[in-house]
Write a structure and sequence with these properties.
This protein is of the alpha/beta class. The protein has two domains: about 160 residues, Iron/manganese superoxide dismutase, C-terminal domain (minor pseudopilin epsh fold), CATH 3.55.40.20; about 100 residues, Rhodanese-like domain (Oxidized Rhodanese, domain 1, 3-Layer(aba) Sandwich), CATH 3.40.250.10. It contains twelve helices and seven strands. Strands 1-6-5-2-4 form a five-stranded parallel sheet. A two-stranded antiparallel ribbon has the order 3-7. Strand 5, helix 11 and strand 6 form a beta-alpha-beta unit. Helix 3 packs across helix 4. The structure holds fe (ii) ion. The site of fe (ii) ion has 7 residues, from helix 1.
Length: about 300
Amino acid sequence: MRYKLKPFQCRPWTLSYLSVKLIESHYENNYGGALRRLNAITEQLESLDFANTPGHVLNGLKREELVALNSTLLHELYFASMGGDGQPTKAMSEILARDFGSFDRWRAEFRAMGYALGGYAAEHSLCVASGVPILALDMYEHAYHMDFGANARAYVDTFLRNVDWPALELRYEDAAKVPAPRLLEQPEFGDVQGIGVEEVKEMMAAGKPVQVIDVRPRAAVSRLQDIAEGVQWRDPEQLKEWIGELSKSEPVVVYCAYGFHVGCKTAIKLREAGFDAKYMNSGHSGWKASGGAMKLQP
Ligand SMILES: [Fe+2]
């Protein structure tokens, strides 16, 4: 497959304080260059006999492909980000205030990133996984040096005066419709609810009444000697032996190794016996993954 050049995404002669010459050179040399590089890499990849290509050759090409592809896409987005009057729409202003505290706070962070010559997509490749970029500011020197010399700050401020906010709002609407990648969907275990590790830890730290019990199967516990701090282990097979130790006036949280069957089944049995019982999601491993304190099993 060959990638095709996107037409100009803004009218260069309408931008304030960004010269036509700068935008033209950026489009022709840097955007065009990225696209031509991308197509050359693609052609090379298409000609490879993958079974007989050394790993380092393939690694190098795939890395270069990613950089050239993102450079192409981000340049298209960069040009599309300009052409407006820099006045945020009401909706975008509210959305940014919701997510960043205030519109000004967002703008301060965005500016500071530009001033720092840093970026959210350094080398065109560091992006949030499954994020959808909707506004791009190019901080490579080729984006401003011709007009601003080394004055990157003036360039960032000028860019902000040119942002096309109504177009940004439409891209935000599109991006907000993209659902997060689906993860494992656990079937419901009757009316038993799972509770997050963080929530359990907060209850314990706040001294709220809660009875937390590790019910990993005996084999798992004798093999792995650690246990969560402040938690008792009880054999899930011997529920009848220890159920009498529990109080019905305080909630009970049980968990197994990973938060699946054993913990859930134990919680169901406890609920049937009249306890306010839940199982803890992710179990013993979740406790450790969240940095919970551990002790050696006596
Ligand atoms: Fe660029």
